[in-house]
């Protein structure tokens, strides 16, 4: 094994040479993957999904980049030497072909997994600028992506390595690879840390910003290059860059949004305290069980509030740790079911809200920490079950809220992705589950005590009556926790 046998080689392992070009391309791809992974995790996507997308898009991108180069450089040469088409380590990858290859795979991937393409793209595409910036240094070491002939004096004060590598075929060349590398980093910073942080971008705006920035950057730098790929006498990269710029402008001014109708979001509700006023029954049921096993225990208002949200097993495990949780739950449920007759009623405005949402064509579901039979009991008492397209109860999930498993399960059952979904709940666990799922999260608080508690979690919206949800639905926003 021998490292750095020449400036283009990273390591020689016997007869196999690993070139810096390949190392830098992969390093750039990995960094873009890492940045995208962080974004997608915040949006509720599992790491396996990100991994599958990354490897598929990387492979498709390399294939597309190589085929684009072969097609527009010297197709006749490669057709006569087909094995050389596979020799990507020698250089010869065209980024535009890589982008098209990656996009085609991405379109197939998101359709298969019921993901919104533009939301995924907003989380990923700006990071490609980082990969492109690093990849250009691979071109530098291969003496590619260079510009016009310049005088030696042009490189006065420059690092010797750059000067030496820009001496190509007996002449000094302008370092257009460096121009593009620097401008790609500047573009990434402007899009991710200025546009995203200090404006209110809509879905797709980060992609359109990438297309405009890279389109303009590459168009002008390509005009300086001396090794451009040509198409019918024109620089192919400039043609594609002009198309990128046009698409970015049209997208930014909203043309594409007008052409494609936005789908109504799925609306998922918690049950206890959100749709059904079960608090009196819950508190009384707990009191009766706790008084039986711990008659000296004082039940404070703070303790009563802690009953709302967690599962029965969690609460009893905390309050009566020395007793059998299963036995306590069985006794609680017997009492609670009987109390439904006198202590349970719909939250004010719940029935009217649900009826109106169904008339408007919304898909509605329930995701609760309550067992399904208890949910059905409450709904059937007031003829409310007909409004729901899916109900996910505690026994159907392995992980309860704030884990978003139940929310994802509801969307999957409905055949929908979670990229346009609203979750409405009244407890910290509900709000955190919605945030963890990357959904548009509406906190519902009927009193100041709960409002103060839920505001600290920074939900997307906070309402104090269910009727306010109708006004929220009129907003021109993306139905996710963030705009991505």
Question: Measured on Cα atoms, how large is the radius of gyration?
Answer: 29 Å
Count of DSSP H/I helices? 20
How many β-strand runs?
16
Order of strands, main sheet, comes to: 13-12-9-14-15-16
Structural class: alpha/beta
Largest sheet: 6 strands, parallel
Describe the structure.
The chain has 484 residues and is of the alpha/beta class. It folds into three domains: 2-259, no CATH class; 266-275 and 345-473, HAD superfamily/HAD-like (Rossmann fold); 279-343. Helices cover 56% and strands 10% of the residues. The chain is built from 20 helices and 16 strands. β5 (167-168) and β6 (171-173) form a beta hairpin. The radius of gyration is 29 Å and the shape is elongated.
Write the layout of secondary structure elements.
Elements: E1 2-3, E2 9-13, E3 16-19, H1 20-42, H2 47-73, H3 75-80, H4 95-113, H5 117-141, E4 149-150, H6 160-165, E5 167-168, E6 171-173, H7 176-198, H8 205-222, E7 230-231, E8 234-235, H9 236-252, H10 255-259, E9 266-269, E10 276-277, H11 279-293, H12 301-306, H13 312-319, H14 325-343, E11 345-346, H15 350-359, E12 364-367, H16 372-381, E13 390-392, H17 405-413, E14 421-425, H18 428-436, E15 440-444, H19 448-455, E16 461-463, H20 468-473
Parallel strand pairs: 9-12, 9-14, 12-13, 14-15, 15-16
Antiparallel strand pairs: 1-2, 2-3, 4-6, 5-6, 7-8, 10-11
Helix pairs in contact: 1-2, 1-5, 2-4, 5-7, 5-8, 7-8, 8-9, 11-14, 13-14, 14-16
